[in-house]
Write a structure and sequence with these properties.
Rossmann fold; alpha/beta; 5-stranded parallel sheet; binds 2'-deoxycytidine-5'-monophosphate; 226 residues; globular
Length: 226
Amino acid sequence: MSAATQIVAIDGPAGTGKSSVARALAKRLGFRFLDTGAMYRAATWRALHHGIDLEDRDALVDSTRAMQLELRDEGAGFRVFVDGTEVTDDIRTREVTRTIARLDQIPEVREHLVELQRAYGEAGPTVAEGRDMGTIVFPNASCKIFLDASPEVRAQRRVDQIHRAGGEADYDAILHEIMERDMATRKRKLAPLKRAKGAEFVDTTEMTFEAVLDRLAELAREKLCL
Ligand code: DC
């Protein structure tokens, strides 16, 4: 990565509001936004869509490498296209979420997606969010942030989100799922979730969305000398 590339690398567990705050931050700074979770979701959606045997690692790698992935950050929203088809909503189903771990622990899958992520970051100032932005993908980023919040608050935010979308949600089941996913992501072999060296820790448990956004913008301006 060239020294001049300006990257804000944001990591943290699911449900911290990372994705929306990173997108809003990118908008505020005039940077590009990169949702790397969407890339793992897209690769997983593609494998499911083509009925690929989830035990066949080579086939999963081939499918990921063959994927034509397009991420469009437009005013109205963040849209994802795989092989020319819009999959923005399809990559967020529970089936996809539950299946991602089959792909995200295959080294060649990660290597391919990491390559795409670095190319994206090379193209211009970027706010990138995921699990390994500060540790693996952009270890030289001048601004690294680790976002966290208590599992209870994250579960409640998810319940509120589902209610706003008109759905029904079971708080206890969601809390259980969040805690299981946390443990799995922190303990996994490849790219375990952890605070990168030099990353600023921001606990959003008691913070509103606006307060988190202001804090992140302040950190980015300070670290990137904007
Ligand atoms: O951010 P998300 O919940 O949409 O991410 C979906 C999954 O993708 C997450 O469970 C772990 C995986 N992921 C990863 O392994 N590395 C990343 N940089 C981003 C996501």
